[in-house]
Amino acid sequence: EFYAKMTVIHLKKKDVVKSSVKGISIEFDHERLAAILDVPGRTGICEYIKEVWEESRYTKPLEITRRFANDATIMKARRVQSVEMKPSQRFIHFTVMKNVIPRFGKRDTSSFLDLTYMDHLMARRLVNMPRVMMRHMSYVISMKDHELPYGDWLTLVFEAFGVPLVIKKGEEPKKYDFFEDTFLTMCRPTREDGIWWIGSGENRRRDEEVEAPEEEAEDVDEGNRSTLVGRR
Q: What is the pTM of this model?
C-alpha cells in the first residue's frame, strides 16, 4: 500500500516522499527519515547511478573493477561476478544487495551501483543512507517489476507516523540468510573502538574526506568511519 500510493516531490535542495497507509498520511524528507531511523542524514555519499558509470572523486570505475575482480590486467570497467571476489568482498556484496540497494533476481553479479557502494563501504566512507533509500525508492516506483525494498526500516517509519501494525507473535521467517563461522573467519573481521569491521579501509587515500551533497557542504563532519547506516 505504501509504494502503491507513493509519490516523490523533487524540490531544489531535497526530495520529499508522500504516501499513506491505512488512511494515515506519511510524508518525509531525508532529514526526517534520518531522525526516524536514528542515523546520520546530513552528510555522506549518496550517488545513484544506473547505466553510466562515470569517474568521480571517489569512484574510479577501472580501479574498482580490478579491485573486486582481483585482476590487475583488466583493461575496461565491467560488472564483477561474485566468484571473482574474496570472501570479505562477497560479504560486502551481499550486504549492499540486501540492505543498501535491495533487489531480487540474480545476485551473483554486481552492478555498477553495487560496486560503487561496495567500494565506499570497504573504504569506510560515510554513506548517507536516508538519501540513498529515497533515491532507490523513487526508482522502484517507476518500474513495473521490482522488489519493494527496505521493509524492516519502513516498519520504523510506519510506527513513527502512528500506523497500526499487526504483529503475529511466534511467526517464523520463511527464509534465512546466514553465513557460517568458517566463511566469516575468512573475511578477517577486525575490531576497532568496539565496532566489528569487514574491510580494512586500505583503498582509502590518506587525503580523502567524505563530502556532503553540494547544498549541504558546510555540514560535513570530519569523521568518515561508519557502519552500514552510519555511526552516531
A: 0.74
